Fold:
Amino acid sequence: AQSVSQHNHHVILSEAASLELGCNYSYGGTVNLFWYVQYPGQHLQLLLKYLSGDPLVKGIKGFEAEFIKSKFSFNLRKPSVQWSDTAEYFCAVILGSNFGNEKLTFGTGTRLTIIP
Amino acid sequence: GAGVSQTPSNKVTEKGKYVELRCDPISGHTALYWYRQSLGQGPEFLIYFQGTGAADDSGLPNDRFFAVRPEGSVSTLKIQRTERGDSAVYLCASSLKPSGRYGQETQYFGPGTRLLVL
Structure:
């Protein structure tokens, strides 16, 4: 069963447009939530993460995400995208609260293309 | 500093052959992870080491897959009797020792090894 869903497979935007990428997870317990990005020709790298506390999390390069527990969502947002944001974006979760559970479960990814 | 490195970057093999994929974690990172990414999918967890021991190997698909980390640093993922379905990018990640709260330590990913089984 798919634990993490990213419904947008490919998003195309013009520069300066606002961005929101959806991420939903299917798990009733405690979760940690992550967004990773893979720029063309580069490694996966962490954009931001939610562990606890303030559900609005700010990350690198002007990205932010909001954890809405009632909607099982962790959508990624950026108010004004740049051409350099062209990349593949992956939502990921760690399910459960057992110490030592470090297994990331990823969504299928969203390819973002920014048109200059 | 140096990041996670993986060798080879590409590996082409024939069905039924044995392959080894190597991962060098970031110096000082005691946790090491292997993931597999098939075309059009997100990375899928295979195994996680804490030091020399496999703390979680629940993602290994079958007994053809095995991984070791004998000295707590470099790790080798071994695949026996390869099948065409094993073709994927194999990713390695490392992190500092988890300090108690799960997920607190960032996993740093390597460039991956692209395996093609003909």
Notes: The first strand of chain A starts at residue 4 and ends at 5. The CA atoms of residues 75 and 111 of chain A lie 15 Å apart.
